[in-house]
Amino acid sequence: MTITRITRLPFGSDFRSLFEGSAAESGFLLTVDDRLGIEHLLRYRGTRNSPNPPLLNGLLRHKLRISRGATESASPDLVVAGCHVTYMISGEGARTGVLSMSPMPVPGHILVASLLGATLIGMRKLQKVPLLRDDGQIEVVVVLDVHPSPDHAAA
User: Fold this and answer.
1) What is the DSSP letter of 96?
2) Has residue 36 been placed in a domain?
3) Could you read off the pLDDT tens digit of each residue along the chain, which spans 155 residues?
4) pTM reported for the whole predicted model
5) H/E element, 23
6) Within a domain: 12
7) Which domain holds residue 36?
8) Scanning 12, 83, 128, 144, which has the fewest C-beta atoms within 10 Å of its C-beta?
């Protein structure tokens, strides 16, 4: 087996910029509040009630690493904590709920302390990404719509 090392990139210093644009279009964006909320969940064991805390913790840490920062006046198409999100998982119908940083289940809320919520946070409208299920299956989730939550709209 021969290993070839490339010592000179054909595009020079512009090589990295070719991938930054595509990463920005397909990646995740986290607001400062969402980043702090995820760090709080991890620090204070807010994921301990999930079916698989180690897996969820790994996903949340990965989300923190790969996500870019969103401006404080985040796009209305961005899924952030407190927003009302409509999504669809492959092979299922559309569902809706309010994305929540709460570590405890609340009716009508999607917890960031769940594989679904951890996947949805930082996504944008019409973005599709793989969704790891508690049983190990991998599906696809797409964000269909995003609105401010009624609680946040009244404030």
Assistant:
1) E
2) yes
3) 444 333 333 334 333 333 333 334 458 999 999 999 999 999 999 999 999 999 999 999 999 999 999 877 778 999 999 999 999 999 899 999 999 999 999 999 999 999 999 999 999 999 999 999 888 899 999 999 999 866 544 43
4) 0.80
5) helix 15-26
6) no
7) 17-154
8) 12
